[in-house]
Amino acid sequence: MSLLRNWTLPAIAIGLLAGCATADKKPLVEGPTSITPPSQAAAPSNPGSLFPTVSTNSGGYRPLFEDRRARHVGDTITIVLNERTVANRSSNASASKESSAGITSDLSALSGLSGNNGTLNTGALRGTPLRGLTTSAIDRIRQAGEAFNVTGEGAVDFSGKGTSSAQNAFSGTITGTVIEVLANGNLIVAGEKQLAVSAEEEIIRFKGVVNPADLVNNSITSAKVADLRLEYRGRGAGDDAQTPGWLAGILLKVSPF
Fold first, then answer.
1. 17 and 82 inside one domain
2. Which helix (H) or strand (E) holds 159?
3. How many domains does the chain have?
4. Are 221 and 248 within one domain?
5. Is the pTM here over 0.90, yes or no?
6. Co-location of 245 and 166 in the same domain
7. What pLDDT digit, counting tens, does each position of 37-84 carry?
8. Are residues 176 and 76 located together in one domain of the fold?
9. At 11, phi and psi to the nearest 5?
10. What are the pLDDT digits (tens) for 94-115?
11. What is the torsional sign of CA 240, 246, 252, 253?
């Protein structure tokens, strides 16, 4: 009884801690989703000839005869989200096996061991394990052997079938910022949008690699964004309703099934 009392409080504490533990929602988009471009250097007092002596890597430089597409850190790009995935899977399996076995004994030949007058044929018994038996004993052995018949049959059948399907859709637009320019000219773009309505809050984050040549009117579809990581989460009563309570969490943690 004392042992039960000693383990009661630790068991309750472990159960409560297990119920409070929730699955870690690791974000798909890590790191900053926006960046501030570096400040421009002061313009020289003497601009020189017809063209200003400004580096092409500076954010203030814009070619006169080219479109104003994003190409520098801090430039904005509009991402048109049009993600739709459909997956279906089905599997069938079957197996069967049949087997049979039988044992039949025929001891009717023992009838030849009896003589004409009901006595044993000692000549036939000489040198056999049946020597020394009486006629009635041999008759009983013969009758039992004639009725001895063992058969066995077995069959195993197995069949299984499984199907699964998943469908997701995500559409909308979000504007991000160029946070890094790679050596080959591609742009790493990231962005975040937060919407709050009353007590509900929705967060959309994305990150990916964009080829500036694919930009049209400084926008690009999500299908052309490499290594796209798109995350949509919510906070509020609706998100809390999808999380099991502490008692349900305890039962899920300690249940062996």
1. yes
2. strand 149-181
3. 2
4. yes
5. no
6. yes
7. 666 665 555 555 555 555 554 455 556 666 677 888 888 999 998 888
8. yes
9. -65, -40
10. 777 777 766 665 544 555 545 4
11. positive
